[in-house]
Amino acid sequence: MRWIRSLGAGWLERFVARSVAPPHHRRVRQVFLVALGGIYFIAFTSLGRQVLGLYGSRGILPVREVFDSPRLNALGRRRYLQVPSVFWWGASDTALVRGIRVGQALSLAVMAGLVPQPALAVLWALYLSYVSAGREFLSFQWDALLLEMGLLAILTAPVGLRPGPGRREPSALEVGAWRALAFRLYLGSGLSKLQSGDETWRQLTACDFYFETAPLPTRAGWYAHQAPPRLRKAATLSVLVLETAVPLLVFAPRRVRFAGLGLLSALQGIIFVTGNYGFFNVQALALGLWLLDDAALARGWPSTPPPRPRPLWRTGVDALAVAPLLALGASELLARLQRPPPFPRWLEALEQGLRPLRAVNGYGLFSVMTVQRPEITLEGSEDGRTWHAYTFRYKVSALEAAPRQVAPHQPRLDWQMWFAALGSPPNWLLALVLRLLEGSPEVRKLFAHAPFEGRPPRYVRAVLHDYRMTDRRTRAATGAWWTRERLGLYLPPLSLTPAGEGSRLQWYAGE
Fold it and tell me: Is there a single domain that holds both residue 310 and residue 452?
């Protein structure tokens, strides 16, 4: 009986200590920074596999064109604020690759806990350098989210060569800023769906289309698409609840907040396996760490020495750095309302000044659900009569090819091809055709297979198809994951102008 009383007294002591004592977050910060370093490593490694094909001198959108722009250079020194990038001082292919290698090395340093604050500062500036000049291929919400997380991490990280959990606790304002970011991320997605007026969300039919029309579907998404209509409707309703009501639990008491974290993490896990959204889901899961406290991580993480008192001056410095970001985040969320309150001029000026830094961003995926799946097929020809398709690495193409799990890798050309099919041909697609006709080896490496054994074709065209997922019976009988119907030409045959006139496109009317 004595050991029972002893056990009960120990449990009661721990319960009182956790309920009365202020929560600690040094261990949470340490684990989060390891996760953030991993996310940076994924982002730089993923971009490195594509950087020359997208932005090199023979890439689709050479980054050098941005820095040679007469419009930007006419701004004088202000051009560095308009497009903040280290590549103003050199945008060669070597510099682009070297930037990736530096990003990977610093990411590993952050994961190892080495000089986290300076390393995070350089990582943020380096990734901003690519995003600022990256145009369409670096315009995804997870790129903006990584920059916002990176900037806040610089302000939160402990100082020192190898500080471990740090000598001092993160301030309440810093913890509040991280939780506010998680709140804006989820609630912004929910509000965008409710305010879009999209009928699929209002009628709870969004999941009837979501798995089939996702930019890069997965095999798990194909099976989810076969679910009964009632289950898909329940899934749609669950998403709306999880993105509008559950985010409020971010600011709830400890145990209720943990329950909300479990629900939001489950949502991210389901999205991860049913849709390829780069490193977005990993970011959202990492943000959830800030809904915990050190006591929640005590069993799986080494104990930390007692923190040092936080000097008053440091609290003031943190407030000056973090409070503006909190104010901008609140104004961004309030601006989504139909009648947002008037904002002070200083806040508007601050927002405009920090906009090129992507310090605070709006979030909201799939506010309007795509109900059809048009897909572009690029084809090359040597005679204008016989056409051979280019095979993308990840984009939907062959009917018998199973959808692939790609995330957390972000294949940026494959993603943008999905967007291009929804409208008229964008300029970057014409630039892609031009590079294929020129035979750029860097661009050719973006494809799984390019016809003509490394030789450039004489003509390139784009064909549009409508894709639909097969059902279980068709899949068992034919082995096909997709059916498709030809809709017509998306781009008529194009060729290069005659030799001596430069590399320009011209329409090919046939021989």
Answer: no
